[in-house]
Every structure is written in structure tokens, then in C-alpha cells.
Amino acid sequence: MKYRDCVNLTAFVVAAVVAGGAFAQEAAGDVALVNSLQGDVSYQGKEGPARKAQPYMRLRHGDKMVLASGASIRISYTTASRQESWTGPSSFVATSAGGELLKGSKPDVVKLPAAVPQKLARVSELMNTSRVGGLVVRSAKAQTASSKEEVAEAVATYEAMRATAAPNDVTPELFLYSVFQENGMADDLKIVAKEMLSRQPDNPDIQQLAKAALGAR
Questions:
Q1: Whole-model pTM over 0.85
Q2: Which CATH class is domain 13-17+133-214?
Q3: Residue 134 — very low, low, confident or very high, per pLDDT cuts 50/70/90?
Q4: Residue 216: pLDDT above 70?
Q5: Phi, psi of 116 (to 5 degrees)
Q6: HSE (side-chain half, CA atoms, 13 Å) at 210
Q7: Coil, strand or helix: which one is 43?
Q8: Coil, strand or helix: which one is 19?
Q9: Helix or strand or coil: residue 155?
């Protein structure tokens, strides 16, 4: 999908409704975002019991990941320009520099463009906001020259990522979604939302994120 000719100036603002500042507290020490997983994958923080991993959850520095035989997980680091694909049986520890192998095979690693990690770091926040109905249209604002340049660079980055990503990998779309949201581009956000849905139509997280974007005016 090409976005070079569909960049508009329509704007909206995200109002984050997260009680008690819980999100800010949870975000401390985040290092990665789970893009996808299959099979039995668990994680364990520095404290507390092991729990079942979930798509689009955030990983903190020091989280231990354990993959059963046949399981797989793909994570993008928000503190390093890398994406890792792990297969089980294996285990590793998530760190700010990448996964540290504990047992099993090393991951397949893809280098991410420098602009990607920061934008992906916002994805969990956007998902939380969409779940509580926080995507609200306030007013339109014109883009500045610098924001137009940022969007143009992001579109080029997206197209390069899309060219090498698996058909059902929505990491490129999540990156572009974050950029469009941040720049108040509601119409373009709807386009990338539909693209995500076409690639992962049965994913409830993607459905919710897309629904929030498609409801913006």
C-alpha cells in the first residue's frame, strides 16, 4: 500500500484516560513490544510468578521469556533498533540492548530504522486509550514544515519495512499508525487502520485499535 499521495491535514487529539497514573508507572523500564506470538510463551519479571505472554504487551528490562517447544515470539525493541524472532524450546532475558540467550537457539534479528523504536513505544498506550474510548476529535491544525518532513520520512520508512515484512506482520502499520496519530492525521489513520485489519482480521487488539481510528472524524 502506498501512502505518499494520501497525506492529509485533518487532525485529532488522543485523550489518555488511565486512572491513577497507572500507565506511567507501568511504562518505567519498558524495553520492548511483543508483535506476535504463537504457542506456549510465558514471562516472569524480577518479582512475582510466571504469567502467560500476550500480543502487544510491553516487556521490561530483566523480564525472562520462556518458549515451549514449537512456540514462537517476535518482539521489537523500543530502546534499540532491532526486532527479534525467537522459536522454542528456548528462553531469554529482555534487556535494553536486546535479548540475552539463556537456553536454546539464538533469534533471527532484523535491524529496524532508527525512527521506529520510539514510535512503537507508544503502541501499548494507544491500545489502552482506544479500549477506554479515548480517541477524540478536538480541532484541526495545520502541519508545520518539520512535521510534514517527519511524515514523509515515516512513509518512506514504512514502505521499506513493508517490503521485507511477513504478510501478517503489522509492525510497519503500527509504526505508521503512531506517526499519523501523533501528527493529527485522522483520514490517513483510517487508511492504515484498514490495512492492519486486512492483515490480521481476527486479532482483537488490532480490531480495537482500528475501530478507534475509524471512528475519528
A1: no
A2: mainly alpha
A3: low
A4: no
A5: -75, -50
A6: 19
A7: strand
A8: helix
A9: helix
Whole-number Cα distances in Å, 17 to 71, 127, 175? 35, 11, 22
- Cell digits for 105? 537457539
Q: What is the CA radius of gyration of the chain?
A: 17
Helix intervals (H) in the chain: 22-27, 116-120, 123-131, 145-164, 171-182, 186-199, 204-214
**DSSP states along 63-111:** -EEEE-TT-EEEEEESSSSEEEEEESSEEEEEETTEEEEEESPPPEEEE
- What's the grid cell of residue 4? 505518499
C-alpha cell at 31: 524495553
At residue 147, the pLDDT reads 78
Q: Tell me where in the chain the CATH 1.25.40 domain(s) lie.
A: 13-17+133-214
Question: With contact defined as beta carbons under 8 Å apart, do 193 and 203 qualify?
Answer: no
- 6-53, pLDDT tens digit by residue? 443 233 323 222 223 333 333 448 899 998 899 999 999 988 899 999
CA atoms within 13 Å, Cβ hemisphere of 188 = 28
Query: pLDDT per residue over 188-209, tens digit each?
Result: 989 999 999 999 998 888 888 8
Q: How many CB atoms are closer than 10 A to CB 52?
A: 10
Residue whose C-alpha cell reads 505508521 in the numeric block: 176
CB 36 within 8 A of CB 7: no
